[in-house]
């Protein structure tokens, strides 16, 4: 599909890549990995044509469509979410307008036997077939399904994009790229602005997509779930491993051990040859042998050992004072802005616990953190335990640093006492040693800023850590170091994060934020995911206009959840214990009536969807392309189907309320 041959890229006469060769095949799912600065983002730009190589070629067939999502991009702010996303279907929209114009012309003309009319009919038929192949009839539903998967509600679709944060607008751009259905998807850190549910939806989307994928990401779980091939950029060339990321780590370790052994053997051989030359250089009787050794030495090709970035930060939280047994207790906590964010929050966090706050963006995780910090008012009771000292890492902590200061000055301003004598050691432990400490904060990368903000957190001993998205911009090795530091921390920790691999094995309790409520789940992050049956994102995010098959799956899922749930009484038989016999009998009657209404609605929808498929096949044939009776019937059934879908939602909600 895409062929890379002899690729060389140089910056200031220093090569980034040299003579790189590989091919991207259809259905490849490639993880592009390498240490920071190896050139991963540059490689994506080369593949999509935004950057030219110093030499070599990137061959892309003319018919090959490429979708590229950079880490940072210019965003539009003058349209609604729906209008902006609809731009992905610009070809379908223009084609629809062209078809409408041709259809009006066919209806107005009466020269049925003329050559021009026949040509117009043929042209209409061809364009209509192309419109159907582009999915022109279903793009609105597909658009809503994709935006829903990425976390947007139906109400959000009519809101102006300027009302959303940069992260949410990046989701719109991601939706547009996915909806264009390119042959090759180039994604640079696509999970940076996604929550766990949206990440899982994206995993499922990519798994079922026909597009090839080239991915740069620091989310280890996401890489493992999406990719089947790993390309490592190392020593100015690439190593191609046709395995997932975890398997690649094992193979790379074995490969490097083999290289080290070969390198050591070669160095011993070189040393022996040089020793022979130096020993017998001036003896005439050994002149021939010396010359042979010199030629042998010249022919040796030095073995290169793959680079391993061992410059990881060394993080250990200082010992902390003992706090009270319950650092945080919430009783009936409620927070409202223009609308209710959450209500009836009741939770108790014990000393030493490591807990996670999870849920979709905008459901109140950071808001509750601000309530705990005392930064915003709230209703209800929120008690901070005895002798609790809070250390807070805000989601935008890295952006709050003064860009005019150097790294050293940033820490020197907040360091006190004996710590001021240890600033250089502290900076060195976080990979800011030597001349790097004199760099201005304004030129640092996102990961470097996050590390610098973490140093400030360490300067005061605390016994309650509150970390809001601490892994944003951190690479995988730095995440592992931070994770181990939190695990060994002898205080309490609240972690707001969407990184499953980071939370796995770290937290023992999960608080789920959603629909204005906060639910407690005992166990780790994957225990929570299993309980919600969202390991397959298909079950978690259905289209706003589901098919009959979707409805059956949802009904089955709901039945399982109802029977398995011990937290809620959703079974009418259990509810009956609280009701009188007459009330119970009336409730059962209403439930049966509601179930019957839902079933009848599903049957009607199934019949209409079947008829629409039949009409689609009829309209594909040239003789029916201008048959107005078929076209009118098609439009009428589509209108009735939309109305019945709305009716199904109302009936289903009514049934859910009764249950």
UniProtKB/TrEMBL annotation:
Keywords: ATP-binding, Coiled coil, Nucleotide-binding
Domain ABC transporter residue range list: 2-260, 321-540
Presence of the UniProt keyword Coiled coil in the record: yes
UniProt GO molecular function: ATP binding
Coiled-coil portions: 584-647
Classification via SUPFAM superfamilies: P-loop containing nucleoside triphosphate hydrolases
Protein name in UniProt: ABC transporter ATP-binding protein
